[in-house]
């Protein structure tokens, strides 16, 4: 089949052809970028936290009328309140382990520190999310230790977040260790956390910072051996396998029974990591859902538009089709003709669309910190648009192929 | 004539129900997705205090110097304690208040009630008149209360109900963080979105409004810790909350009211003078790098409108455009299919204008039908926006008369626009040619 007669015929429908080309181009531009946004959000949501998420929950609460912690006596009082809570939680039958830990992956608020290799370094080598907690923190969270050791009980300090007391030892995530010492010899090295010297005594293979950030330092985490004293005290608890809900209910009851003067509301007081994860990625999931919905509508509308306009053309060329059939064209030839015609139009559309998609992506990159659209998305989008065109054109093309040759003999 | 064209339009649309349904669906979906995302965008990009936002300003001072500046050269977006207090003391604006976030516990008076955790702010007395904060009972406190660090509090209506039940609680005593405070004012429902005096901590949108306001100096004196974010370029040298106050860490917002251009110029000069003075005293080793943005400019600077909201709106508008192009194509097909009918009308003496009226009327009917479908789908969309967006933002999106009117208007106008070219083609049909060939 030659292309020339198709082009000649399309010259009669310049406006319609232009409209379909435009529609396919815009659809491709929007859909390929939208799908890219969806895939980015999904990969953000699927990032592992580095902790064993099953059976893990967080207790976040504040003591009412607690001392300020600015003098040693009140600091000890605050710490005693916290230690009492930890003891109560540890005795619950459904609880496997308990730790004082200010942080929990994805929970939202985060302490950030700067790590440097020398004392007088102007800008830190890396930013890092800080986890403050006791000697049970790493094991309760379930982050896997790949080198060195855990904190021991004697190394645990306790002070407020505003304290200037340095932590003599830290455990870091593998990502951070590699950033600080690319040759893999971070263990045992002295580094500077917020300009204060500290020794790396352990490395965990992965630990996401305590919020759902997409910053480059999302896996740069530091565990510091500090039970943070304050009005607010947070714990992480691992329930025995499969006993998460009973453990959470028992924890709530036991803590209030021991000390009523605390604030621990239903909404955020005791939450499983599953709930925390759900809240943290709600916006990303929503954006992916919305983009998916818009893509579906777009593709539907474009396919319907192709069906509509091609049907109109088939109606207009009724007589010509009859003549072709009378002159010996088979049904399959007519079918092929319309498929080829659509391929031609859609082909022009996807070329324009690919350029538009790139343009839109570049614009999004400058305005909204989007990443560069990979070629695979473009190619997939192009193929998908061509396929949709072929499927959509089938209905009117089949109707065209059913036009009987006798039409040629009738007056128009 | 209009009634006749309307009848013709309906008859014509009934003749090809598939094509008609396709156009109505396309317009309905296109308009509804745009309007749903618009309702969210409108909610988050609104001016929270439109009658006054151009008179409210946020001073920024560069206390960290060039080494801590980003590539944009901007100074920090909040103040440290020393600078906030210096600006408060100078009192160069007609009204001004330093603001910091607190999160104290409150023990309700009723026995057996659980303690509550409430969010609030330490502010100065001028905060309330400056932001036109509405009171249900009582009022804010006085300058004398600020000076004497009086144990007074302004609480929200919600907290008043939780702590004291219904009725006027002014004059009653409330236990905040283990200390007694006298309630001097109860707010009428007040929860501006974005919560413009604290965008740095909340990102702009915070769900429930603040529940308690305490005198700034009082909250500092009793050591009520900062519940907002703290950013440090250099770590505090001294221990505790006092150490934070002596440091250059930023954690305090400052808002000032400047009534005219002269006052704004005057305040700018004052800021530069202050920074120059600090430079002279050796505290700043750099030339002044201050900003004085009015509230709308500051909200833009802080990127209060979420990026996702903007991208969604853009993508939805893209969808609307594709739907319209689709409608142009379908209307073209529909109108030109009736070339014979047009030819007869023209031959019987109908002018082009009459053809325009007839076919634009038909486009308008399609648009109206699409608009009605769009209204329904917008309703579903706004109701379902909670599935897609964070609750604190989804709650802001709502349907009102202006949104409904806009939906209808966009649907009809857009379809008329889409109908222009097909109608133009229809009006160009040659009557003689059509009559001959039929």
Structural domain tally of chain A: 2
Class by alpha and beta content of chain A: alpha+beta
How widely separated are the two ends of chain A?
A: 27 Å
What would you call the shape of chain B?
elongated
* Parts with pLDDT < 50 across at least 5 consecutive residues of chain A: none
Q: What's the helix-strand series of chain B? A: HHEHEEEEHEHEHEEHEHHEHEHHHHHHH
Number of separate structural domains of chain B:
2
Strand adjacency order, main sheet of chain A: 3-4-10-7-9-8
Question: Can you describe this structure?
Answer:
The complex is a heterodimer of chains A (412) and B (438). Chain A has 412 residues and is α+β, with helices and mostly antiparallel strands. Chain A folds into 2 domains: 4-45 and 283-409, no CATH class; 65-260, no CATH class. Helices cover 49% and strands 17% of the residues of chain A. Chain A is built from 11 helices and 14 strands. In chain A, the strands form 3 sheets. A 6-stranded mixed β-barrel of chain A has the order 3-4-10-7-9-8. In chain A, strands 1, 2, 12, 13 and 14 form a 5-stranded antiparallel β-sheet that branches. In chain A, strand 8 and strand 9 form a beta hairpin. Chain B has 438 residues and is an alpha+beta fold. Chain B folds into 2 domains: 2-47 and 306-437, no CATH class; 62-257, no CATH class. Chain B is 52% helix and 13% strand. In chain B, strand 8 and strand 9 form a beta hairpin. In chain B, helix 1 (2-15) crosses helix 14, helix 2 crosses helix 14 and helix 2 packs across helix 16 (401-427). Chain B is elongated and about 100 Å long. The mean pLDDT of chain B is 89. Chains A and B meet through helix 2, strand 13, helix 8 and helix 10 of A and helix 2, strand 4, helix 9 and helix 12 of B.
């Amino acid at each position: 089949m030659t292309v020339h007669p198709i082009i000649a015929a399309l010259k009669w429908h310049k406006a319609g052809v232009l409209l379909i080309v435009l529609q396919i181009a815009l659809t491709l531009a929007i859909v390929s970028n939208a799908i890219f946004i969806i895939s980015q959000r999904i990969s953000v949501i699927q990032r592992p936290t580095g902790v064993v998420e099953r059976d893990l929950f967080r207790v976040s609460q504040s003591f009412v009328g607690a001392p300020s912690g600015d003098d040693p006596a009140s600091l000890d009082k605050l710490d005693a309140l916290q230690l009492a809570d930890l003891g109560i939680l540890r005795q619950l039958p459904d609880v496997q382990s308990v730790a004082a830990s200010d942080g929990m992956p994805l929970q939202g608020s985060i302490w950030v520190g700067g790590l440097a290799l020398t004392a007088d370094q102007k800008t830190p080598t890396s930013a890092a999310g800080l986890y403050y907690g006791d000697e049970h923190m790493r094991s309760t969270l379930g982050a896997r230790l790949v080198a060195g050791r855990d904190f021991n009980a004697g190394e645990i300090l306790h002070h407020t977040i505003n304290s200037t007391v340095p932590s003599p030892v830290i455990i870091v995530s593998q990502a951070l260790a590699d950033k600080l010492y690319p040759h893999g010899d971070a263990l045992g090295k002295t580094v500077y956390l917020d300009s204060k010297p500290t020794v790396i005594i352990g490395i965990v293979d992965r630990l996401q910072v305590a919020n759902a950030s997409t910053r480059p330092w999302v896996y740069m985490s530091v565990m510091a051996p500090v039970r943070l004293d304050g009005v607010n005290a947070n714990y992480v608890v691992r329930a025995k396998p499969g006993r998460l809900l009973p453990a959470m209910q028992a924890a709530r009851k036991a803590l209030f029974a021991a000390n009523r003067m605390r604030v621990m509301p239903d909404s955020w007081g005791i939450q499983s990591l599953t709930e925390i994860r759900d809240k943290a990625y709600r916006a990303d999931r929503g954006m992916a859902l919305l983009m998916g919905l818009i893509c579906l509508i777009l593709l539907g509308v474009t396919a319907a538009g192709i069906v509509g306009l091609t049907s109109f053309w088939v109606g207009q060329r009724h007589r010509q089709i009859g003549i072709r059939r009378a002159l010996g064209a088979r049904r399959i030839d007519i079918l092929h003709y319309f498929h080829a015609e659509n391929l031609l139009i859609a082909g022009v559309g996807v070329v324009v669309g690919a350029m538009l998609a790139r343009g839109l992506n570049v614009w999004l990159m400058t305005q909204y910190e989007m990443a560069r659209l990979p070629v695979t998305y473009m190619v997939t989008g192009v193929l998908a648009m061509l396929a949709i065109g072929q499927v959509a054109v089938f209905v009117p093309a089949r109707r065209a192929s059913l036009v009987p040759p006798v039409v040629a003999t009738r007056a128009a | 004539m209009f009634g006749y064209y309307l009848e013709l339009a309906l008859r014509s649309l009934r003749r090809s129900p598939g094509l008609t349904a396709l156009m109505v669906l396309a317009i309905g979906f296109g308009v509804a997705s745009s309007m749903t995302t618009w309702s969210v965008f409108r909610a988050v990009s609104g001016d929270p205090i439109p009658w006054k936002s151009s008179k409210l300003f946020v001073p920024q001072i560069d206390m960290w110097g060039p080494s801590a500046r980003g590539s944009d050269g901007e100074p920090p977006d909040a103040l440290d304690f020393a600078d906030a207090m210096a600006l408060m003391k100078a009192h160069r604006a007609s009204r001004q208040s330093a603001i910091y976030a607190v999160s104290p516990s409150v023990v309700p008076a009723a026995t057996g009630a659980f303690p509550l955790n409430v969010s609030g702010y330490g502010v100065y007395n001028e905060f309330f008149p400056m932001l036109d904060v509405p009171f249900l009972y009582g009022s804010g406190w006085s300058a004398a209360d600020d000076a004497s660090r009086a144990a007074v509090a302004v609480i929200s209506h919600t907290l008043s109900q939780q702590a004291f039940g219904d009725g006027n609680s002014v004059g009653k005593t409330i236990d905040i963080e283990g200390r007694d405070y006298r309630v001097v004012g109860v707010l009428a429902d007040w929860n501006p979105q974005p919560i413009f005096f604290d965008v740095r901590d909340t990102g702009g949108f915070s769900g429930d409004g603040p529940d308690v306001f305490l005198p700034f100096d009082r909250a500092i004196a009793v050591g009520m810790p900062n519940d907002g974010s703290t950013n440090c370029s250099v770590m505090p040298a001294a221990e505790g909350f006092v150490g934070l106050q002596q440091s250059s860490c930023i954690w305090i917002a400052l808002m000032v009211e400047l009534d005219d251009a002269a006052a704004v110029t005057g305040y700018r000069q004052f800021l530069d003078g202050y920074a120059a003075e600090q430079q002279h005293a050796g505290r700043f080793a750099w030339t002044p790098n201050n900003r004085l943005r009015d509230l709308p400019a500051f909200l833009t600077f802080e990127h209060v409108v979420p990026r996702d909201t903007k991208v969604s709106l853009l993508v939805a508008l893209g969808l609307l455009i594709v739907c319209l192009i689709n409608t142009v194509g379908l209307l073209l097909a529909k109108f030109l299919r009736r070339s014979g009918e047009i030819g007869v009308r023209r031959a019987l003496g109908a002018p082009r204008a009459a053809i325009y009226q007839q076919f634009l009327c038909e486009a308008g009917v399609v648009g109206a039908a699409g608009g009605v479908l769009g209204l329904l789908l917008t309703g579903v969309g706004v109701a379902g926006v909670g599935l897609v967006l964070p609750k604190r933002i989804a709650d802001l999106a709502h349907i009102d008369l202006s949104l409904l009117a806009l939906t209808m208007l966009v649907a009809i106008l857009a379809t008329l626009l889409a109908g222009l070219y097909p109608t133009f083609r229809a009006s160009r049909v040659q009557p003689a040619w059509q009559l001959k060939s039929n």
